[in-house]
């Protein structure tokens, strides 16, 4: 489901439930006559049935996603080939309609570049790198939630990342999707593909059926990375001094401890089987699930726009609209406070008055 629509839906839910959050607000049902309460209970049973039908709807949506994923894949495969340099697009395929302003800006940049090249004398051949260098690494740097995971020692490895794919569970299998990270041969690990499976469910919770809002991720599984000797960036070696209690002698030992790295993504935290946990674990799992959804719904389908930054600008614009609305509400509250304090509004200059 599109993130913007989800956000609107959540906001609408907050508006509907907001009155119940105020202290002193008795539940509506407690104020109803017994006969009306009885009918309300019948409506609740109908609502539960609606939730189960909605769950089936999302299962069919998952089937549609699988179907259309197969249709997208040839185009995404060609994107991979262009990025890696395996295929050179034709002149016709490279044509793109742009605004006149952009064209003029590009022409000016090319003019300046030509001037610099002329000053170099004989001039070297124009640089023509293979494919689109650091395509996925640039995306990682552009997207906040990924850049926060990215460490300096991860960057040389991610330069070898050639493609990220999403694969959906087969018909008849439990609902899930798999992220596949395809790497070219490198000196860091022997894997050519690293995977992360996100398991989902689309069914109302028996204890709280009214909380159902669509499929949710309930678990995830990573994969083993076969690191070459001395190349594992998810651990670091430290030296520690130990003093013998009896003899008083000191020795230095080395041990490996966990190290911050994007590649910890493939060794996710696991929720306890008994359902117990703490807030930190819940936060970690929620963040992991959010990243998985973002790869599936945004980054993989629109990778080029995250590479150029255009998709990020769209996301930021949406966030800013929400903030502006909030700012307006705050401003209204401030105006009300000013009236309450009895402060007399100063007359505005003529040029500031609204027409």
UniProtKB/TrEMBL annotation:
Native source organism of the sequence: Denticeps clupeoides (denticle herring)
GO cellular component: nucleus
Stored InterPro entries: NAP-like_sf, NAP_family
Family affiliation: Belongs to the nucleosome assembly protein (NAP) family.
UniProt keywords, alphabetically: Nucleus
Compositionally biased region (Basic and acidic residues): 1-24
Location, primary (coarse class): nucleus
Cleaved signal peptide residues: none
Compositionally biased intervals (Acidic residues): 313-340
Gene responsible for this protein: nap1l4a
Protein location: Nucleus
PANTHER family: TESTIS-SPECIFIC Y-ENCODED PROTEIN (PTHR11875)
GO BP, sorted A to Z: nucleosome assembly
Region (Disordered) location: 1-28, 313-355
Alphabetized Pfam families for the sequence: NAP
Protein name: Nucleosome assembly protein 1-like 4
């Amino acid at each position: 489901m599109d993130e913007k629509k989800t956000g609107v839906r959540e906001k609408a839910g907050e508006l509907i439930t907001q009155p119940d959050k105020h202290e002193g607000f008795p539940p509506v049902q407690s104020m109803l006559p017994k006969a009306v309460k009885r009918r309300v209970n019948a409506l609740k049973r109908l609502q539960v049935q609606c939730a189960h039908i909605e769950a089936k709807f999302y299962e069919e949506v998952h089937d549609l996603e699988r179907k259309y994923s197969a249709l997208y894949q040839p185009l995404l495969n060609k994107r991979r080939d262009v990025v890696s340099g395996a295929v050179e697009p034709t002149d016709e395929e490279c044509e793109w309609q742009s605004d006149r302003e952009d064209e003029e800006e590009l022409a000016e940049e090319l003019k300046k570049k030509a001037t610099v090249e002329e000053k170099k004398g004989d001039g070297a051949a124009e640089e023509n790198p293979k494919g689109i260098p650091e395509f996925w690494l640039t995306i990682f740097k552009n997207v906040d939630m990924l850049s926060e995971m990215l460490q300096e020692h991860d960057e040389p490895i991610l330069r070898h990342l050639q493609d990220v794919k999403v694969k959906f569970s087969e018909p008849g299998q439990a609902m899930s999707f798999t992220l596949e990270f395809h790497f070219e041969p490198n000196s860091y690990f022997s894997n050519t593909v690293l995977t992360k499976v996100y398991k989902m469910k689309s069914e109302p919770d028996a204890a709280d059926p009214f909380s159902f809002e669509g499929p949710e991720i309930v678990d995830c599984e990573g994969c083993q990375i076969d690191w070459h000797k001395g190349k594992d960036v998810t651990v670091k070696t430290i030296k520690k001094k130990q003093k013998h209690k009896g003899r008083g002698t000191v020795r230095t030992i080395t041990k490996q401890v966990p190290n911050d790295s994007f590649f910890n993504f493939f060794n996710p935290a696991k929720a306890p089987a008994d359902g117990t946990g703490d807030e930190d674990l819940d936060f970690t799992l929620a963040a992991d699930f959010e990243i998985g959804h973002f790869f599936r719904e945004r980054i993989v389908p629109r990778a080029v726009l995250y590479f150029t930054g255009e998709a990020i600008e769209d996301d930021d614009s949406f966030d800013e609209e929400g903030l502006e609305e909030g700012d307006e509400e705050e401003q209204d509250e401030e105006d009300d406070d000013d009236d309450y304090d009895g402060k007399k509004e100063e007359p505005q200059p003529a040029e500031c008055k609204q027409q």
